[in-house]
Amino acid sequence: TQKTLAMIKPDGMSGNYTNRIKNVILESGFRIVKETIVQLDEDTAASFYAEHSTKSFFSNLIKYITSGPVLVMVLEKENAVADWRDLIGPTDAHKAKVTRPHSIRAMCGLDSEKNCIHGSDSTQSAQREISFFFKEVSTGAAVTEHDEL
Ligand code: GTP
Ligand code: MG
C-alpha cells in the first residue's frame, strides 16, 4: 500500500465539510491512519508551499492557508497518491464543478485559490509532506494517532 497527505484547508473547515469529506475518503477505500488539526503560522505555511514561493499568488496563498485551522491526514490505500489526486479533482474548483462534478473540490471548493482540500502531487511529495507534519520524534506539536476511525 501507499500513503499520501490530505489537508482540509481553512475554507473546508469553516464550511463544516469535514464529515462529508471523511465519508468520501472512507467510501473510496482509504484508511485515515493519522490526523491532526493545526493552525499554520506564516513561516510554516511558506515552508510547506516552498515550491510556489516565486509565484504571483504566493502571498495570497499564505494568507489563505493561515486564515484558520487545517485538518491534516495521512491516507493509506493502494495507489493512494494518484487516486487521492483524482478524487479531489482539478486545482480550480470552478473547473471541478464543470468537469468533475463528483470530485471533492466540486463539493466544497470555490475557485482556483479556495479549493478546500490538498493532496500530495507525487510519492516524493507525499513522503516530504507526511514527515513535515508527523515527525517520528515529536518536537512539541500535538499529534493524534489512531488506527481506525
Ligand atoms: P494543493 O493540493 O493545495 O497543492 O493544490 P494543487 O496541487 O492542485 O495546486 P498547486 O500546488 O499548483 O497550488 C497550490 C495551491 O495554491 C492551490 O491549491 C491553490 O490554493 C493555490 N493556487 C494555485 N493556483 C492559484 C492561482 O492561480 N491563484 C491563486 N490565488 N491561488 C492559486
Ligand atoms: Mg500542489
UniProtKB/TrEMBL annotation:
MF annotations from Gene Ontology: ATP binding; nucleoside diphosphate kinase activity
Location of the active site: 118 (pros-phosphohistidine intermediate)
Catalytic activity from the UniProt record: a 2'-deoxyribonucleoside 5'-diphosphate + ATP = a 2'-deoxyribonucleoside 5'-triphosphate + ADP; a ribonucleoside 5'-diphosphate + ATP = a ribonucleoside 5'-triphosphate + ADP
GO terms (BP aspect): CTP biosynthetic process; GTP biosynthetic process; UTP biosynthetic process
Domain spans labelled Nucleoside diphosphate kinase-like: 1-141
Keyword vocabulary terms for this entry: ATP-binding, Kinase, Membrane, Nucleotide-binding, Transferase, Transmembrane, Transmembrane helix
Annotated binding of ATP, by residue: 9, 57, 85, 91, 105, 115
Family: Belongs to the NDK family.
Identification of the protein by name: Probable nucleoside diphosphate kinase 5 isoform X1
Organism from which the protein derives: Juglans regia
